[in-house]
Amino acid sequence: MSPSPSRRAVLGGLGLGLAACPFSLGLARAETAPQAPALTAAPQAGASSASDRIAPQGRFQAGIVTPRPAWGLVAAFDVIVDTPADLERLFRRLTDRIAFLTSGGTVPELDPALPPADSGILGPELRPDALTVTLALGASLFDAHPWLGPLRPAQLTRMTGFPNDALNPDLCHGDLAIQICANTQETIIHALRDLIKNLPDQLVLRWKQEGNVPVIAPQAPGVVESARNFLGFRDGSANPDSADAALMERVLWVHDAAEPAWAKDGSYMAVRLIRNFVERWDRTPLAEQERIFGRTRITGAPLDKRDGTEADVPDYAADPEGAATPLDSHIRLANPRDAGERHLMLRRPFNYSNGVTKSGQLDQGLLFIAWQASLTDGFLAAQTRLNGEPLEEYIKPVGGGYFFALPGFGPGPDDYLGRQLIDAIGHAPQKT
Amino acid sequence: MKMLSLAATLAVLATPLAAADATLDLVAPIAEYKLYVSENTEALVTDTQAFVAAVKAGEIDKAKALFAPTRLSYEKIEPVAELFADLDAPIDARADDYEKAEADPAFTGFHRLEYALWVEGKTDHVTAVADKLEADVTELAKRIDGLTFPPAVVVGGASVLMDEVAATKISGEEDRYSRTDLWDFQGNFDGAKKIVDLFGPMVEDRDFVASVEGNFAKVYETLDKYREGEGFVSYEKLTDEDRKRLSALVNTLAEDLSTLRARLGLS
């Protein structure tokens, strides 16, 4: 494939990337209290713009510590590859599209006798709109090819059901997960349709879930509120500070000796489609809802500091019997705050609202996305502790999967997402 | 797997692909295509008569054996079904096209009889449906000679059919009672490929044609794995892996063939 004019324009404009991004982490930090979570803060009205640009290049992929915009989706694909060259071609084509979509530009005009080059839903001029496109590989891809199997990240497995799960096979797993986030719904849908149209020979869509988080009114300087989920509670209050690069090195980015070398600077992605039984929840007394979560509904303050804020840290040592924060409350089980950083993960979820079930109930829930350096210590440990929690009566995980986000890629014209893996295949002993 | 994505290549093309006043002579291939449709329609009438006779005689096994082979010639001419849309619905509509599904009195044609044969296991209540099917295909055959075949419809029909396979056939919903979907696939691919065979030689971009032909070859390679006797094994035998591959091939063909009209100067 020859480089298109738009591709050249993208490469020429790379320098603008981070500097032009109003979401730049430093800025978000400067305005917040030291403990305030920035990443899952509710987007504030008027703070985002279609010209927000998040460069896809970097040591890590964009879309992981990038502050969460209002819209996001995960689409899982099966990929058609037989050889390492096929996989390289897939990665290079995806990188090309990502570079184009995240920088924006003019949609090529074709002979009107042809189908148009672009869906047109954003008009003739694409604006970046804080778009990020993040690629993560599933275990099935590694298992399908003898030349890839030995390079599978050490903890990457096929998701298996937890006791409260009711997994729908049509909503689970995939060779490749693509997370797409942006300020608006039309931008993420545009990007998804672009990828599907341009790579029909290598990508077969398995499932897709999009969601959003509520945009709130502009807040006073220094005030940061986590966005609410569809149960009405703030979600993300205890997230580790994504602007703390040193912390993220430990919590998020893979550099363990047990991992294949190519995987350095990648991250494990746990995706869960968690249906919320909202009708039942709305019939539950508020005090019980708060005990189930361990936080107050209005402010998100922990129950032992009811007049505080969501940024306050509960003191479980002072409450060994769970008189204030029940021992089986969601936040206490999910994060007992007794293991330092070992079990931390970075949650970056979106709310989804899909339609109506056969019983005439709303199909709403959480597109749960969590990132971590160790799937075992992160999501798996947390979910294992949560098994049997009272919240289970109101939620039902129905889909998702575990994936491994590729390391980032550089601005050089020949770098691309997945290059580290392709290079590693080249160096691996070939089985014939 | 080496498949050129022509859609992707095309995305960088901004110049017209063919002169507006196409000097391409489409008369001969259109005439030949019409002959192809006519031959298949004749076969359809003959085969349907035998199928309907078996249905009306209550010969369930015989009727079941004739179902898929009879449909084959209809599936081959499906690229131009929009030229006889009023007959396509009563001949080939599916239960989902009707609000009351299988119970809907408007549900007729092949799939209503398929439901009677495989699910209800009797045919005495559908003799009127059988008669109507025979009358509809006979009417179709009568019409073909007098029907105008606009080149844009014929050429566009190839990608429309691939779209349809991608949208509502690869899932195995067409022949859901009999699981004879792979026969229909064969008919649809034959019908779309016939158009490429006839009009492909006039396309300037030979890489494009080679890639489309390569993808058809891969489709047939996959279908060949499931041949049995004169036809195919049950759709349930199709592995997930092959279904995925067929899906990717069909979508790639749909994208690529969606440019065929423009490549021939048709709008």
TrEMBL record, chain B:
Residues 30-260 form the Imelysin-like domain. InterPro entries: EfeM/EfeO_iron_uptake (IPR050894), Imelysin-like (IPR018976), Imelysin-like_EfeO/Algp7 (IPR034981), Imelysin_sf (IPR038352), Iron_uptake_EfeM/EfeO (IPR053377). It comes from the Bacteria. Keywords: Signal. It is found in: Cell envelope. Residues 1-19 form the signal peptide. The keyword Signal applies. One of its GO terms (cellular component) is cell envelope. Pfam families: Peptidase_M75 (PF09375). PANTHER family: IRON UPTAKE SYSTEM COMPONENT EFEO. Belongs to the EfeM/EfeO family. This is Imelysin-like domain-containing protein.
